[in-house]
Every structure is written in C-alpha cells, then in structure tokens.
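retry 2 of 3: previous attempt timed out while embedding guanosine-5'-monophosphate. Reduced batch size to 1 and resubmitted. Inputs unchanged:
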Amino acid sequence: MNFLEQRILRDGIVKEGNVLKVDSFLNHQMDIALLEEIGQEFHRRFADKKITKVLTIESSGIAIAYPVAKAFGVPLVFAKKAKSINIDGEVYAADVTSFTYQTNNQVIVSKKFLSADDHVLIIDDFLANGYALQGLISLVEAADATVEGLGIAIEKGFQEGGMRMRNLGYRLESLAIVDSMNARTGEIVFRAQD
Ligand code: 5GP
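retry 2 succeeded.
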C-alpha cells in the first residue's frame, strides 16, 4: 500500500452518495509534506515526458498541482470557474458538470497561458465521472496544445471516468484507485497497482 492509500485509510471518511471526504489532509486542511510527496510521485511517474505546463481546475486541484509544477519546474495554470457573461474572445472555455455540487460551470483559461507548443500534464484531486478532466482536455485541445498525461490523486474506480479516459488512449496515473467504499461500515478497498 502506498503513502496516499495509507493516509486515506487513516483519515478519509466515506460519505453517502459515493463521496470520499479527505478534507483533514487534502482539500480543506492540507498536509504540506504529503502534498510534496504527491508532487514527487507524479514527477517520477511522468519523468519520460517533456512537460511545459501543469493544468488543473480551481479550487481543490490547485493544492495538488502546485507541488507537481514545482517538481517539473514549470508554470501551473488553473482553469477558473466563470459566469458565461464574462466570457470574451481572450479565453478558451469549456463546460464542466460539478460532481460535488451537481451544477454546470463554464471554466476558462486565458489564451495567454496555453499555446500550441505546450505539452501539458493535467492534474486533479479526484476522478469520478471524468467531467472535470474532459473540460480540461478540451481547453488544451482548443489551444492546439498536447495532453501528455493525466495525474489524479484519488480515482474512484467504481465510477466511469477512469475507464473512459483510458479507453480514449490517455496516459492516466492515479495514485490511489478506490474500487469500493461503504458509507455504513467505512470500509475502503483499493485496486492493486504496481
Ligand atoms: P468528475 O468531474 O470526475 O465527475 O469529478 C471530479 C471532481 O469532483 C473533482 O475535481 C473533485 O473536486 C470532485 N469530486 C468527485 N468525487 C469526489 C469525492 O468523492 N470527494 C471529493 N472531496 N471531491 C470529489
């Protein structure tokens, strides 16, 4: 079991509705040493790729993506949630349905910060149905840049996002894949990985 899986077992809380709460160490209170370790691990896993930018989505993706960008020595760009009224020709925009809030958001990135010669590593905290990743991928495609890989801290393997991304041919690295979890007993089962 790796360092993140151990921490999830220790401090993660399974909620009704297929939600795993990790807000004591990842997305409310943050364990900086753990985040640094996550950054190093993604750097190791994507060491064969020439990454020029790390892209994530606000807000909880930023904490994970920061140490990754630091490890690669490249800028971190985060997609902002925007009211469509603000959208102008200076941004790339994509629609994302929020898993946690069940709302539809438009996310934007300024055209200044993604261009055709960028090789992008997309990072997020969770992968559930894959809407956030899909939105981020379309921003990269709108810029004619290249998606080099997808890095996820916690994939919920019983939801369809991971399978969809792998079927589309993306290199997806998830540090922890939850195959099942039970809100009543609190049990969490991880997929075995190399
Ligand atoms: P997806 O777009 O893949 O359906 O969901 C991923 C997004 O929803 C992530 O950006 C994450 O913020 C949020 N999310 C999905 N599932 C969970 C969960 O179980 N716990 C938490 N804390 N966030 C989640």
